[in-house]
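Problem: given the chain below (312 residues), write out its structure.
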Amino acid sequence: MNGETLYSIGDLARRTGLTVKTIRFYSDRGIVPPTDRGPTGHRRYGLDAVARLDLVRTLRDLGLDLPTIRRVVDREVSLPEVAAAHAQALAAQIRVLRLRRAVLAAVARRGSTPEEMELMHKLARLSDDERRRLIDEFLDAAFAGLSANPEFAGVRRSLTPELPDHPEAEQVEAWVELAELSQDPDFRAGMRRMAEQHAADRAQGNIPGVRRDAVAVVRDQVGPALAAGIDPVSPRADPVIGTALARYAQLCGRPDDADLRRWLLLRLESANDPRRERYLHLLSVINGWPTTESLTPVLDWSIRALRARTSA
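Solution.
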């Protein structure tokens, strides 16, 4: 053998730290074939067997299967090609594990029944296309016939969750909850009602290009009063709610009367659905957006103030 130093399988085991049984296993499968055999038939290995065994051990630690490892060590396929393929496979496995972790975390936190857990698991496993169809169906129910308007098309886009390719566990859990929420018939009906009310608001008014958003109007006017601790049913609240009504009447092109108060109250009550606020929070988590401040205190204050004055 041209003076090459040959090693017995025991020598090879001592040099590599692998067991004789493991080396024999790889040898029998042609991954680390013997260079020669001694007079008694025992296998003998060249120095390259040490390098092959080191590579084999590394590839096994990385999760490659034996047929692929043999192709790599025999140079039938390049290591970069194999590494790229397995990196993609590992990414898919990591995604699955994150989905499972999110479902289990949600089950533990919410005390879900077996039926609820099965539903969460199905929602978590949806493909990108399936997720998109599920949300499109929900948004179609809310905005059907309205999305042709550029403003509504923009609102629809702003309500669309986009789960990233490599989501964090909390993003997956948020997606599962949002998907469940989107299937709630009452929530769907509420979102549709809000969209129709907004469309009705747009049909009113005499100031082109000005957004007639009831929530935005009361937020701007009521925020300081709320911060100051003014009771919404007290006389101190009269100028606050009066200013909000006057502004809303101007934007809608309507008189500031009892009908306008009822009109505004109906819109604020529709907007004050805790499920809507929860949807927006989950949407921010999924899309990686900053979470917005809760409007519930402002809406609660405004609704109490309007109810007190409308009933009177």
